[in-house]
Design goal:
Structural class: mainly alpha
Number of helices: 3
Order of helices and strands: HHH
Helix content: over 70%
Strand content: under 5%
Number of strands: 0
Largest sheet: none
């Protein structure tokens, strides 16, 4: 991985981490304030996480990840 690729990877990882924290925060707000509707905020953050997760996934083994997803879906009956 050259310097530019590494810089892009770090940027994407940082953005993913930021969006994961924002999603976790929105979900905790919904749990802690059940009379307030945070569904739109949660949906927005899920979308943001998906975008950056797709960007980061390209640096990892897609076959391995897909296999793990299948196993987890079976394990938790999802």
């Amino acid at each position: 991985m050259n310097y530019q690729d590494f810089h892009n990877f770090r940027f994407k990882c940082n953005k993913l981490t930021e969006e994961l924290v924002e999603l976790a925060t929105a979900m905790l707000q919904q749990r802690n304030k059940p009379k307030t509707d945070f569904h739109r905020e949660i949906e927005d953050e899920i979308a943001d996480v998906e975008v950056w997760l797709m960007a980061v996934k390209q640096y990892y083994n897609e076959e391995y990840i897909n296999n793990r997803v299948s196993i987890k879906k079976q394990t938790y009956d999802l």
